[in-house]
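User: Okay, second chain of the day. Same drill as before: sequence in, structure tokens out.
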Amino acid sequence: MNLLRRALLASIGAMISWKPSWSKEISPDSGEETSNHDETEESSVTPRHVLCFLGNERDLSPLSDAASKAIRDFATGFSVDEDYSQAEPDDRMSQSFAVCWDRVEANAWSPADEDAVADHQSVLYVLGPSMAQAETVKVSMLALRLVERLIDAGAVAVKGESAGITHGLDRWSELIRQGAEAVKAADPLAEQRVGRLAFAKRPLSVPGYLASVGFHLVGLPDVYVPETAGSEREIVAIMDAVADEIAQRGLEPTLKARRASLSFDSTYEPDEFKFNPYGIVKLPK
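Assistant: Same drill. Structure tokens below.
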């Protein structure tokens, strides 16, 4: 199946079956039947970004031209999708964005951002390159620069389809600023952290756990924390701490220190953008 079509089916599926963390169960975010995969060997799947930009004109050229120029200037390997982008509104967008807003960061979006989604007049999709693990952070920083270029060109809303995450324009601007500072400082750990906050989604629910999705976009396994470990915000803080520890100390030392296990039992199909080829770190119950 066409990769972007699968991502769009996932977004449509999310509108129908998405459940917030407090519903105690996660749906596979797909319009198709999925099954669990217990991959005991390293997966050959590589992550990639899929970005959705909404415009305020019934004309794709302002956003498309800006994306094409960014691709020529720095975003090597990215491409504008011409099959599913459209110079007209998509009436599914309000609901699609509604289930993807970042609900962790305070004031991550505003009523003005919701209005901009509802009033959009065009939709542009940009596909990122398949990323080797060592390149994920670098490419995610390029994705942030691409977001900046298209906001400057008139994008009124932006969503990362690969994990199903969206922020308001002010929050995107703050993440772009943080990313630029991390790149300028040549601080790969800060770059990875900003990329994770920008393009990953948390928390979602699987039976018995609260979970992240999208950490593979910065080369990390996702993190599952027992739902009994604290409040939702406390559990998100644990997820983020574990991700930072893996980045700083390495996977094996973190697993040992946290008495955690690495699992490849995923609710996502290997050809879905949300599938994490680096596995899932499960903290003990």
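The longest strand covers residues 50-55.

User: Thanks, on to the next one.
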